[in-house]
Design brief:
Protein name: CBS domain-containing protein
InterPro entries: CBS_dom (IPR000644), CBS_dom_sf (IPR046342), CBSX3_CBS_dom (IPR044725), Diverse_CBS-Domain (IPR051257)
Structural class: alpha+beta
Pfam families: CBS (PF00571)
CATH architecture of one domain: Roll
Order of helices and strands: HHHEHEEHHEHEEH
Keywords: CBS domain
Largest sheet: 4 strands, mixed
Mean pLDDT: 76
Number of strands: 6
Number of helices: 8
Length: about 200
């Protein structure tokens, strides 16, 4: 999935540059300049690469009401992994008992494999707090973070899940799959707009 993310980043830029180059080649300079001045404001309204993490949360039906999956530092790793399996997710946000809005860390399938299975530890007697990635080592985003920025953070740091926080605390979590789907959708919409521009739809 990380390779796909890198491919989408470079592929999107190549497509956009190729289409714009094509426009410059086939359009007469005076006509192109006039069209650009007339349509630039409209193009700006759409805001290429403007999708934010808040848009993803909204599409997923997640909001600041705490409707995201979590466990506590005192839960057993077994219970945490069972919850992941039941909800078909690869990670859970970890909070301190009684403090659902205060993020303590994150536990992922990778933590389970590396720190429980490989080391031969018991998932039923090990607490989540003993193997989680702690809050001070977490990479997070805000609702205003652009999707492409989030993708870059995830691919650069080789992570598949990233918590979303704001000034009041935890808002949700997005996966690399969520981000890739958003980028693909945005590039598709941008190509449609460039197509309409070339054909005089703007």
């Amino acid at each position: 999935m990380q390779g796909a993310a890198h491919t989408l980043l470079s592929h999107g830029s190549m497509i956009r540059n190729a289409v714009l180059k094509h426009v410059r080649v086939v359009s007469r300079p005076t006509v192109f300049s006039r069209l650009m001045s007339v349509s630039s404001a409209r193009m700006e309204e759409h805001g290429f690469e403007s999708t934010t993490i808040a848009d993803i949360l909204k599409a997923k039906g997640k909001s600041a009401d705490g409707s995201w999956l979590w466990c506590t530092t005192d839960d057993s790793v077994y219970d945490a992994v069972k919850s992941m399996t039941q909800h078909n997710v690869g990670a859970l946000v970890v909070v301190k008992p009684g403090e659902q809005k205060s993020i303590a860390g994150i536990i992922t399938e990778r933590d389970y494999l590396r720190k429980i299975i490989v080391q031969g530890r018991s998932s039923k007697s090990t607490k989540v707090g003993d193997i989680m990635t702690e809050e001070n080592k977490l990479i997070t985003v805000t609702p205003d973070t652009k999707v492409l920025k989030a993708m870059q953070l995830m691919t650069d740091n080789r992570i598949r899940h990233i918590p979303v926080i704001n000034d009041t605390g935890m808002m949700g979590m997005v996966s690399i799959g969520d981000v890739v789907r958003a980028v693909v959708s945005e590039h598709r919409e941008e190509l449609d707009r460039l197509n309409a521009f070339i054909q005089g739809g703007y």
